[in-house]
Amino acid sequence: MEKVILSLMAIFFTIADDLFAQSTPIQIDRPDQTECPFIVPTNYIQVEHGFNVEHSNSTITSYLFPTTLWKYGANEKFELRLITEVNSVKDNNITTTGLSPITVGFKTNLFKEKGILPATSFIGHITTSNVGSKAFKTSYMAPSFRFTMQHTLSKIFSLSYNLGAEWNGETAEPTYIYTLTTGISLTEKLGAYAEIYGFALQDASADHRVDGGFTYLLNNNFIVDISGGVGIINSDLKNYISLGVSYRFKVRK
Fold first, then answer.
1. Rounded to an integer, what distance in angstroms lies between the CA atom of residue 230 and that of residue 198?
2. Which phi and psi (to 5°) does residue 135 adopt?
3. Helix (H/G/I), strand (E/B), else coil: 82
């Protein structure tokens, strides 16, 4: 029995060492709509969960419980990405629940921040058409991409922005994406942001939205967040609120 206890203690302290050895604080792509340019450390898995409720200006209410971004740091310049979403959509008295089509992709670092040159990365995704619940399948696979940029303005302020496009799996027409967010370090552990973002089709008025929120770093490998937003111009979004938890751990030496 003593050998078993000692073995379990050894396993526990090995896992704890892996969990908390990384000295650089975790960097996450949530809760704002702006993806960050930072790559997950090599041989680390990072998991970012979000629990969202979104009300549209029509009769639709959407629940994500959760939406999860899974990331693996392949090396210092490249990470693999997987997105899974358990989605429930309520339209009048009809509720449809299931797994949205799974998204796979990558992020690669292009430039380090230097002077006026922002830290820059590229994200590419492909959303499958039918790897998920039948109710949410699409006619075609749907690609998307973003360039992610960030400037460090001071020790407490940063400016980040994304430019990209995505497809919905039903038509060949892309939706163009922009985001612009300011990050503020209120304390060593507490952060805040305010953001404007939007979507534009080729033959339709742009949909503009704003949001904001807070993050709290529990330790260098564990962070929680809360955020919310509203539509402001030509938007079908009425409002949304989101809670999140993100963490990372090392999978091998």
1. 11
2. -65, -20
3. strand
Cα distance between the two ends of the chain: 29
Position 97 pLDDT exceeds 80: yes
| Burial of 175: CB neighbours in 10 Å, binned 0-12, 13-18, 19+ | middle
Long-range contact set of residues 206-214: C-beta below 8 Å, sequence gap at least 24? 206/233, 206/234, 207/231, 207/233, 207/234, 207/235, 207/236, 207/237, 208/232, 208/233, 208/234, 208/235, 209/235, 209/237, 211/32, 211/33, 211/240, 213/31, 213/32, 213/242, 214/190
User: At a CB cut-off of 8 Å and minimum separation 6, what does 76 contact?
Assistant: 39, 41, 42, 109
Angstrom distance (rounded) from CA 84 to CA 66: 8
Phi-psi label, residue 219: left if phi above 0, alpha if psi -120 to 50, beta otherwise:
beta
| Alpha-carbon gap, residue 30 to 86, rounded angstroms | 17
C-beta of residue 100 within 8 angstroms of C-beta of residue 136: yes
Count the neighbouring beta carbons within 10 Å of the beta carbon of residue 181.
21
Q: How confident is the model at residue 2 (pLDDT cuts 50, 70, 90)?
A: very low
Amino acid, single-letter form, for residue 246: S
Residue 110 has pLDDT above 60, yes or no: yes
